[in-house]
Write a structure and sequence with these properties.
Elements lengths: L2 E12 L38 H13 L3 E2 L2 E2 L1 E5 L9 E5 L5 E10 L2 E14 L3 E6 L7 E7 L6 E7 L6 H18 L11 E11 L9 E6 L2 H20 L7 E6 L4 E7 L9 E2 L6 E2 L2 H9 L5 H10 L4 H9 L1 H12 L4 H19 L10 H12 L5 H12 L5 H7 L8 H14 L1 H8 L5 H12 L6 H12 L1
Parallel strand pairs: 12-13
Antiparallel strand pairs: 1-10, 1-11, 2-6, 3-16, 4-5, 4-15, 6-7, 7-10, 8-9, 11-12, 13-14
């Protein structure tokens, strides 16, 4: 039987506020364990929470960027469950009255654009972090576990999508687009490797053409876009095999094992009633008036989808435009380079090609690299006016990345400036033609293949600095 996947994504985003959601403790990834803690985020008796207004504003920013309605009245709730890394034995979250509801995000896969509904964006606090000591870092094989409560209480937004996603590839595109928007908003660093952006997927199958949903499974522990796609592809195949064999899919939470390339059962899937939600008695409701909502709306930057459309209008290919639009640093360098006179497609090609490869090789981020918009514009200009050959330009780029100076300075210091003026080339070309009369005669008789040979001889004589195009034109004039 043919099945249709039905997928919804729950994305958790840690916000880059200075302090935690309900206390004044510092938010700082990488601090020594249990140094950014206080009675509030440790859940000590008598400690009372206070809402972080900046976190509320950041949540509104995400909601507005996702075309959500902002509630005038939203309420915090207690979500009751016990994990060792949750000091209060409940999490302050939102339940039936969240801050942001009923939005959407448009997603492109190939040439097809689809709309994924956003059920809600709600505020909550993060939990602490458990480190399991033992083989593989899994709790099942651990000899003991260590708890770090630095992350407990960090402002956390949960973005819940509608079950509108129909493939693993579309799920990856959705999370990529969402991450690009969050980075552009500047409300989170969205680092997957550090856990400041995490996602869970709910996936089920139903026969093609059916309207009723199948039994859903939640998949956790996917820490990259590639992991998300691989995990969903595996889970879709696993569920299809069960259904084809006449077996039932069990509603549960499953753990993705990146190394094994498979999911395994963790626990039965909880329902909302399992958490015994009730309004948080120590916090007043959040009230958002029109002035606050409008001020946040007016502060929204251009989002990746808007940038992508503008870049395509500038002449960029859609795929290249998408890569640059989703990367805040690349977008800033691209904009700067074009403003500095660089041709858009040329700059984009350098940025997504040689620059990306070089930074990956040196394990350097674009923001920390000397390669900026001015350097890319200058490099593109030098190639365009034939001051540099394409191969020399790559060498110059490496020199710029190594901190040797501007493209002009690197090209001069490495003696890579290409010779294209006739006055300098003509004497060399005349010597080459005189030394190769047979080749010259073949060229005159119409054998165009020897042109490459003659250009190569001139390049050798000039140490590779001659402009091949200029050499070809001068030789053609000599041949008559």
């Amino acid at each position: 039987m043919a099945y249709e996947p039905v997928i919804g994504i729950e994305t958790h985003v840690e916000l880059t506020t200075d302090s935690k959601m309900f206390c004044g403790c510092q938010v700082n990834f990488g601090s020594p364990p249990n140094t950014n803690v206080c009675p509030v985020c440790l859940g000590l008796p008598g400690a009372l929470p206070v809402v972080n207004a900046r976190a509320v504003e950041y949540a509104m920013t995400i909601g507005l960027a996702l075309n959500c309605s902002i509630a005038e009245h939203s309420v915090f709730a207690r979500k009751n469950y016990f994990y060792p890394d949750m000091p209060k034995n409940y999490q302050i979250s939102q339940y039936d009255e969240p801050l942001c509801v009923e939005g959407h995000l448009d997603v492109e896969v190939g040439e097809e654009t689809s709309r994924v509904g956003i059920t809600r964006v709600h505020m909550e606090e993060d939990t602490g972090k458990s480190t399991h000591i033992g083989e593989g870092g899994r709790i099942q094989a651990a000899s003991h576990s260590l708890l770090d409560f630095n992350r407990a209480g960090v402002p956390l937004m949960e973005v819940v999508s509608e079950p509108d996603i129909r493939s693993a590839e579309q799920a990856r595109a959705f999370v990529s687009e969402l991450r690009g928007a969050i980075l552009r908003l500047g409300v989170s660093d969205a680092k997957l490797e550090e856990g400041s952006m995490r996602f869970d997927a709910n996936v089920s199958l139903r026969p093609v053409g059916a309207e009723e949903f199948g039994t859903k499974v939640e998949v956790k522990n996917m820490n990259s876009l590639r992991s998300l796609q691989r995990a969903l592809e595996y889970e879709i195949e696993r569920q299809a095999a069960l259904l084809d064999a006449g077996e039932a899919v069990v509603q549960e939470t499953r753990h993705w094992d990146e190394e094994a390339g498979s999911t395994s059962g963790m626990r039965s899937k909880e329902e909302a009633f399992d958490y015994r939600y009730f309004p948080e008695p120590d916090l007043v409701p959040v009230a958002v008036d029109d002035e606050w909502r409008n001020r946040v709306a007016q502060s929204l930057p251009e989002l990746p989808a808007q940038s992508r459309a503008r870049y395509v209008a500038m002449g960029l290919e859609p795929t290249t435009a998408g890569l640059i639009a989703r990367d805040v640093e690349a977008g800033a360098v691209f904009e700067s380079a074009v403003a500095g006179g660089g041709e858009a497609q040329t700059v984009a090609n350098w940025l997504t090609g040689e620059v990306t490869a070089l930074l990956r090789k040196t394990e350097t981020g674009l923001a920390a690299s000397p390669i900026d918009g001015a350097a890319l514009a200058a490099l593109a200009g030098m190639v365009a006016d034939r001051s540099l050959s394409a191969s020399a330009a790559k060498e110059v780029l490496a020199g710029v990345a190594a901190g040797e100076g501007s493209p002009e300075e690197v090209a001069t210091a490495r003696d890579l400036i290409q010779v294209s003026d006739s006055a300098s080339l003509e004497p060399v070309i005349d010597e080459v033609l005189a030394a190769n009369p047979e080749a010259l005669e073949k060229l005159r008789s119409g054998d165009g293949k020897v042109m490459g040979f003659l250009i190569g001889q001139v390049m050798r004589a000039t140490g590779g600095k001659a402009d091949p195009g200029a050499v070809s034109r001068i030789i053609e004039l000599r041949v008559g």
